[in-house]
């Protein structure tokens, strides 16, 4: 398509871009806060993609086969809000006027669940790109699982906007390398190459040959596209569709384009233009309209509702044909895209808990987790496992796991579907990719690494909690109990610090049965969960049926005093591998005439949400308490108070066999018993 | 040099490599734990580097002008221990026999400060490479600062071993991109390209064209080097010295080379070979010696003490000549390489605190920090600032800051020295680079980002704490008080979770004077500190001279009750921007007849190390307490107990102006006063 051949159309398209520009300018101006530079710089790119390529239905943002759009440079949120507003999503102009105000649908950075049409929450740079890789991967795997000859019910693309910031972040390497290796050919990234970041001209701190870098990842790269030439971007998008690989479209742009005195400078990145410059921009671009005003003809041109309805209707016809031929697959597809658990789920969990209890195995909880996964996989085909190159240590694979892999196919290569992803040594990338998979829907992703390396992924865990994605993070080697690898590998503060992330559930089960329940709770939850699992064996604990049921409440009474109520009393609280220390200490103390209750607390985050009646029943107010966990002690003060006791580790670990370490750090039943005697004595 | 021309020498060199192999095998075998694959695969590379290139003096691991060697693939620690042992460091064979045992000098992963000759602690993959970039950057900047024509007293290289794991990690992108941009020509990375990672053949999850990727960063790349050909590696190292850019040497290797049945498989990565395979390896390589035995002639060939002593002596002669010509510079260089503060330091701090107090400014603490930096820079030329592309927000620059930059110089480009680094949007890379700078010595690095994005850097903060590096992390925008950017940018759990990292000091000052003291404490500390700073203005608080002195203790009494001791009493504890809420609440409560003490707690980590007498004097036992901080509440239970009160935020933030948010989250003086009345009532 040539812009010269259709001057009228070209002018109209330019006006569409300017409509985006001024909504962004006006939104930022009204908020007196925000980022105009990116929307002004990417307006034409947005027109090319949203008006000519993006398959979506503003009337139904949940249409399963829509294209996904991710604004990885999320500070340009006003561009996305302008697009959603103009194409016909439920985002009235009043919401644009309330940009960045409390409870508006237009928060400072895009938030999934807040604004219809926003696919993921972005702002922390680079993660949107990784989310998009997850979405593209979910699409590719779903297509291989559900499509049938002549029935391509899963067939959509994932488009991403990225800026220099995203591409400087390390996670861009992890995500792009994985996407290239897996040949995610429906992933298209549009790079806003404006040469400016907050500190100024990037050449002084970011001199990469980015096209060459992405080519090295096996991507198709479209170089030197004029990002202000809608037709050129359109051509590049057409080229991407034929590339057979993920595509990076490098768009040369001018940050803040349109602003006469601020374009091309970092001043325009993150602050309002100011009334004077706004007026100058209106004059320069010939935009006579009042703030937030877009002429009706331009609104009509932007509106994508009819087109979207038609596109979805066409897909629904095809889906009904699929349903006729493959009724079971169609029902299963719909269930999974709704994120519903299968009908037999509860029965399966009950059976699993019963069988696990009967087996009474003494194994590491990472091993218990592996056995649980195998049982769950029988009823949950949506389980999509993986590990950041620690499969044999995390025990995240199972019989029936099929590696997602690339198969050479002549000169080309082909992605083979499966349910297990070797993420490589990419903890942060893995976690953000899993978030993207969960957001796409269709799979329930889980992935493993060592607990210490949750640090590498931490902001993705936070984003999962903020977005409430159903993502399961399997963290094994959960204490100094991992032994010889030493302090770099031994978590000490991690269990506590993960529990501080709002909305993140953290489980540290003590044996096979608690591990099974932790998994069941994680699967059922509308939000992320971390499973902290031991490398070393932990003894099986016998429980009553009520106790097994109580595990799901996060904390419960595992053993209770049998001594007369006149005895001195103490409650021992423990998690994971330290529950056995508490039980051993209880035996000592009981022999010495102290009445002891042992509370197993596999999940403080779950326990904290229980009603006060349950919490007080488990931890009777006034009875002295001692907590034991192989981690920092301060965390436990909220349960034991200033007068209680905590047995833990406040320093880094050491390199030595596990048994030597538990002795060295005084993590013993004797230490727990001593601490219990101390607090009982103080309380007397 | 041709191996064919000198068959005897070649055989001897091969034996040197095999000596490394068997010490590694025997160490792992004795420990029944460890990673033989990498030492066996990199033995020849180690010979080429350590025997033919590395400038070091085993007798003095602290020689300032030694080459730095970093084992970024730290799981191969036995290779490094074997090298240190054989070249003559204070690491007797008994320590090798105690590999991975409690308190041995040979922990599972190399730890700086534990083993002489270990330059940085590695294990968490990719960070060693980033540390090395920091070391090379420190060298380059020191050379530009101290060298004079004819007097190159700073002139050494930084060598790094990396594996596939390091190169998959995102931080490798951040570090390599920065190193390429800054043309760190004395950085040489040797890549152990064995095609195997823990999960198996990497091609299924890591199909990068790594040489092309590094070329895209502006590196010189030596491709297709046979990593088992010592001469070929030697040639590549010679080539690197002339490259004028950082160099990546891609060595094709066989993991576990020498092990007849395990070489080339992932089984050899992280587990002992087993007695049978060890014997087979001895036979295959013709190594008849007993475990840990190395023939004397081979020991003599490896020993680098004489060569090292001579090299250092030669440097010392040159340094003495430098001293004659530039006595002040020589003294300053020695001071800085010792990590000592200047003689006028204490006076300068006293003057700074006095001036800051007199100025009585109401500014944001990030602004107070900037003013402090400017004052400190006058007496601390070693200050080396920077930001992860948020200079104007973090306010990490100052008048007198000179950007480290690249200047075009004909077809080539040249690094210009300075004291401010634009790290780009690379929080993790920045932090690990700063750790490397601190380990190198000569500079005191600090760098800024938003507090939320401390998540991205978290494991580097942990490593700083483990290594006790003097690194200062400046984290601004420290609460919902940052306003409209919303929950992705608003820290809630971060202050608390950073305080849980053992050995990391965390400061959250409430005004200009506390900010100045926080900086002074961070500079004086032998270990890392985080400064959590507000975006918004905070009122100046007047203090007595004793109170100003008490800030350094982390927590102190800011206002004390003037009401009779018979009154109901309460202690309010606050940090940072919430101190003003506590003061306002105190006014309300005092008016209502409650005796109130306000404790400012800028650093809980420092306060916790104070003697109990101080802590009890500040927080008198038995008096009810209320803590207020714009963050998760659970953390504060360790100070207020179960019966105390906490005013905070347990959910994610929102996008809105700061004032609206403080009201929305009920972070008000009224809320603090209400909570105080509640706990006073309960305690009655």
Strand content of chain A: 5-15%
Termini of chain A, distance in Å? 87 Å
Gross geometry of chain A: elongated
Mean pLDDT of chain A: 96
User: Roughly how much helix do the residues of chain A carry, as a percent range?
Assistant: 40-55%
Largest sheet of chain A: 6 strands, parallel
Widest β-sheet, arrangement of strands of chain A: 12-9-13-14-16-15
Radius of gyration of chain A: 28 Å
Structural class, from secondary structure content of chain A?
A: alpha/beta
Count up the helices of chain A: 27
Assembly state (oligomeric): homodimer
Poorly predicted residue ranges of chain A: 1-5
* Number of beta-strand segments of chain A: 22
Question: What is the largest interface, and how many residues per chain?
Answer: A-B, 110 and 111 residues
Set down the secondary structure blueprint.
The structure is a homodimer of 684-residue chains.
Chain A: H1 7-31, H2 37-52, E1 68-71, H3 77-87, H4 93-97, H5 127-146, E2 158-162, H6 164-168, H7 170-181, E3 187-193, E4 196-197, E5 200-201, H8 210-216, E6 220-226, H9 230-241, E7 247-252, H10 275-285, H11 296-302, H12 305-325, H13 327-338, H14 345-359, E8 363-364, H15 365-379, E9 383-387, H16 391-394, E10 405-409, E11 412-416, E12 420-422, H17 427-440, E13 444-450, H18 454-467, E14 472-476, H19 494-499, E15 505-507, H20 512-524, E16 529-533, E17 537-538, H21 545-550, E18 556-559, E19 568-574, H22 579-591, E20 594-600, H23 604-609, H24 612-618, E21 625-628, H25 637-640, E22 645-647, H26 658-664, H27 669-683
Parallel strand pairs in A: 1-2, 2-3, 3-7, 6-7, 9-12, 9-13, 13-14, 14-16, 15-16, 19-20, 19-21, 21-22
Antiparallel strand pairs in A: 4-5, 8-17, 10-11, 18-20
